TrEMBL record:
N-terminal signal peptide: none
GO molecular function terms attached to this record: methyltransferase activity
Source organism phylogeny: Bacteria, Bacillati, Bacillota, Bacilli, Lactobacillales
Enzymatic class: transferase
Name of protein: Class I SAM-dependent methyltransferase
Amino acid sequence: MKKGIDAPLVPIVFLLVGIVGMVMAVTSGEWTNYLFPIALFLFAGMYLYTSLWGKYKLIKRVVGEMPLDGHEQVLDLGTGHGAFLLEVARQLRVPGKVTGLDIWNREDQSGNSTEETQHNIDQAGVRDVSELVTGDMTQLPFVDNCFDHVVASLAIHNVKPKASRQQAIAEAYRVLKPNGQLVILDIEHVGEYRRKLEQLGVREVRVQHAGLNGMYALLSTRILIAKK
C-alpha cells in the first residue's frame, strides 16, 4: 500500500535544523556541539520509522486484540491512507463493513486523498467491505447507535480547539452501539478523551502505552480502549 508521513513538516524541521547544527559544529571544532544535531537526526529517524512502519505493526496488534467476528459495522475516524481501515477490513466479510471518514487534509498526512486511499483499498482486495466518506468528525453524518466499533489513529489531536475535540469524542460515543467499543491511538490529549468519555457515561475505559512502535521522537502513542 502507498503510505504517507504523519505531519510531514515535523521530520523535515528535525532534519533541516540538524543539518544547520552539524555545519555549526564542524565550524566550531567543539565535539560537544555535535550532540544536538545528532539528537535531531535520531528524532527524525524515530519519527519516520514510526510513521512508515511502526504504527502499522501497532495497528495490526491492536486490531488482532479487538473482538471481531467478521460481521461488524466499524467506523474509522480520520482514516488517512487507511492503515486502520485496511487492517479491520481484512477481518470482515459481507455484510460487515468499515467506513473511513476524513476531511483529507494533506498537512495531517502527506498525499492524503480519497483517490490514494481507494487505491489502497482496491489493491488490498477489500472493496466489498470498505467505504470512504468525506466528513467532519465533529459532525458525523450517521444516526445514533449504528457502529459496533469506532476507531481512530493519530487523528483526533489534529482537531482544534479543545471544545471541538470534545465534540468529536461525543460524536464517536453517540454513533457507537450500546456495548460497542471505542479504540483511539493518539500522541496527545488522551487524558482529555478519557475524562470526556467518563462524563458521557462510558462503562469502562483503560489507557496503555503503545511501546517503541508508537514513538514519534519524544512523543509516545497511547492506546485508549472504552466500552459504551
